[in-house]
Design a protein that fits this description.
The protein is built from twelve helices and eight strands.
Length: about 290
Amino acid sequence: MPHIDRPDGARIHYQEQGRGPAVLLLAPGGPVGEISDWRHAPVDPTATLAERFRVIAVDQRHAGPSRGPLAPYDHQVAAADLLAVLDALGVGTAAVVAAGASTTTAWRLAHDAPQRIGAVVALAPVGLDDSNSLGDFFGLFDAAMRLPRAAFFDDPESEGMAAVVEAARRDGSFASNPAAGPYARPLAEDPDFAGQVLALRREKYVTALVRFRDGQWPAGRAFFSVPDEWLAGADLPVLVLPGDDRLSPPGAAKRLATDLPNATLADAGWSAPDRRARTATEIAEFLTAQNPN
């Protein structure tokens, strides 16, 4: 199982297949996005792109078999992880296909290493518009913060932390089991990490969640990982397929297409059932146009 080791002790797992121009895939979920999540997505680029491209899919540091320390989320660190994967594979420039919360990582990659990112496909990009608020994003963490506090009354000896580990072992997906928190996968599968969390007092754990949340969803930025003003100067080809939920509203996609000088907005989102085959073709054709040779 190929992986790279990072200076802070993190381990980043990746997979690659196919030949041709490099395409980096970032599955829905942001910091908890894992390669297997593509199988449940409306379009699975790990399957549709490998015939034309060198497809590199990554489990981010709190997803799949990847591992990271109990630390706040940091967009710069997430981008550095992915650049390190490209370095290890000898990839100079790659296009990025990112979905949902992972689109924030795509913008940060383009911000931090513009010479390394040749194009971006943003599927249902998250962002703020008139239809939502920062509270909608913060709310993703509410159940995880409530769990140890509520469990404390039944289990004061562990300060309610045993319930956190139990929840993660029952379902180690933050997306389907938000009470297990963003560290659900390592809690479920790594006994050393679970022991580290069990040793925390519940309020220290809640503080860790707040710091993770605030790192992932910082206030004052419509697309979270980059300054709003950066968009106008980011002259890279971008294909935007709008989302249709509260975290990925159509208005955020329209703003991206307006603010990014070289962006194209698709006429419908990638989840429309009658459009999925055309979406897969559209993504492949867009990426091929950036690499005509």
